[in-house]
Write a structure and sequence with these properties.
Blueprint: E1 10-15, E2 20-25, H1 28-34, H2 38-48, E3 62-66, E4 80-85, E5 92-97, H3 101-107, E6 112-116, E7 123-128, E8 131-136, H4 145-156, E9 162-165, H5 168-171, E10 179-181, E11 186-188, H6 193-199, E12 202-207, H7 218-234, H8 238-244, H9 249-256, H10 261-264, H11 276-283, E13 284-288, E14 298-302, E15 312-314, H12 317-325, H13 331-344, H14 348-363, H15 369-372, H16 382-394, H17 398-402, H18 406-413, E16 423-424, E17 427-428, H19 438-446, H20 460-463, H21 466-473, H22 488-505, H23 509-512, H24 518-537, H25 543-563, H26 575-579, H27 595-609, H28 620-625, H29 629-638
Parallel strand pairs: 1-6, 7-12
Antiparallel strand pairs: 1-2, 3-4, 3-6, 4-5, 7-8, 9-10, 9-12, 10-11, 13-14, 14-15, 16-17
Amino acid sequence: MKIKGGYAGKILRVDLSKVRVKAEDLKEDFAIKYVGGRGFGSIILFRELEPKTDPLSPSNLIIVTPGALTGTAAPAASRTTITFKSPLSNLHGDSASSGLFGANLKYSGYDSLIISGKASNPVYIYIEDDKVEVRDAKRLWGRTTGDTHKLLRDELNIPDLTTLTIGQAGEKLVRYASVVTDGGAGVHARCGVGAVFGSKNLKAIAARGHRDLELADPEMFRKTFQEYLDVIAADPYVPPAKKYGTPRFIYHRAKFGIHGAENWQFGAYEWSGVDPELLRSDYSIKAASCPNCPIMCRREFAIRSGRFSGTVSKMEWESIARAITCGVTDAESIIYQTRLANMYGLDAESTGDTIAFAMECYGKGLLTPQDTGGLEIKFKDPDVMLELTRRIALREGVGDLLAEGTMRAAAKIGKGAERFAMQIKGVEMSAGDPRGMPVRAVSYATGTRGADHLRSNPYIEEIATPQEAKEWFGSEEASDIKGGVKGKGRLVKWSEDFVTIGDLLGLCKFAYYRSATFEYLRRKGIEIATKLYNSITGLDISGEDMMRAGERVFNVEKAFNTREGASRKDDTVPARFFEEPLLGGGPSGGAVVDMKKFQTILDEYYEARGWDVSTGLPKSGKLRELGLEDVAMDLSKRIALKD
């Protein structure tokens, strides 16, 4: 097979310590094997980062890789993955976002950017075609993400300049600091990528490219594009997404009673203050989309009066969800907090969970007024939520403690505070409460970057018919949300490989990897995605090949975490979910994650993966079967793996 289009053909390396730039050819067999995006980043991180590296040391890597379809006209193909060792988990870390930066990196000639070392002073990297420079950024240090983007755009006199920037949170090494694209168009939020930028004195990366990407088969591409449009026109998932944007997911959480309110204690909760209809009628000013996406599920919200008057914010569902975790359901406070988080460069999920953790610790006397500088930290108080967001970003007072994330903050507080740190592998929770839905709990537990609803698709059990569950996962029980457990481990494994495809290609999860039917889900996420890739590259790989690529990359990340010391004991969820019934009544009221069901599903999951069930570790034979001979050899030198 020979690649005829889609790729730029080079990998760019920038060593900040030595101020050295180097471009090298992208190897064709490497591109075919790891596809792009998360695939390139994961294998490069495994191969080039020494085990036990401090994530905030100069030795950590930042690997910026657009998806294989990013920069093309493929629908909803605009995502770029940044890969690194996470300062939250000390394990594999990556974070993806839409925007135009990845496309411009490819238009400049590069399929991946690998950054190493640490600059002696604040810098930014400027990329324009063959021009790659490390430039002084001292004047930008202390600026917000949006201001940094605007200043660079104006100074360089490039109106369509694309950027990745950090705010004050990244500069202060907040362990869940984010990187913002194009001044606020998107956010690389999870796992603390902004802190890794800050640790390297890297304020921003700016790019503008002018090269074209080749398209191997225009007619096949046109037909596949139309097929995608035909599917989303028929998929019942799409109309609510178009109408409400991502805030529509509050209806799903309300339907199942899984809000995770007040630090994941309450499932059912009063949510009328953030009703999607209210947001749509009173605050929404613009329906937008990521580049090339026909679904348009993004929204800009504005506050027109009151103390937050004039605030405009691009707000996604998770900002709302994590405010509810703090007991806050006031729309205007949440819109304003989202604006703050984006300006400072903070992950909304970890920020909300960490503030909720502090609220519960304060209520139980583990944090005192002396610890908080007199601030009364209590649930349902939007002013406290806003003030703690500011203090965390600037590491002021108690914010310095909370900037470490819930796992480290709990360890410093002691006195049983670990009980209230709602995190997995050091990364705070996301999405909805898993109690009453054991497959969701397992999917959170096995994610390679910590607590994560985007590393898998546990929603399949809600949409698959019993017949589909039997055919694909071996048991009708896999489609029974609260009943049996057979087939659910295989469902989690399949769904993890499945959604990884989107991260390899740069496709939006909502546009391809969410659907109202299992049939449409497979058509979009495997069949159409693969045909788009083939039409652009000129390759002829099958849907099975693409799923295999997803499995291969997931195993690379598992191997990285194994090398860092993670095992089956780390594939779990907070004790609260196992031991404390969900409060608030409602559809899931009184539910817990059944430990026996959880472990049974986890066993089946490991078996489906071909990993050691007793330890949860990959087997060297499985790694070799996936073409990961070097990964198997490296891991076997350090850890006794079964064959």
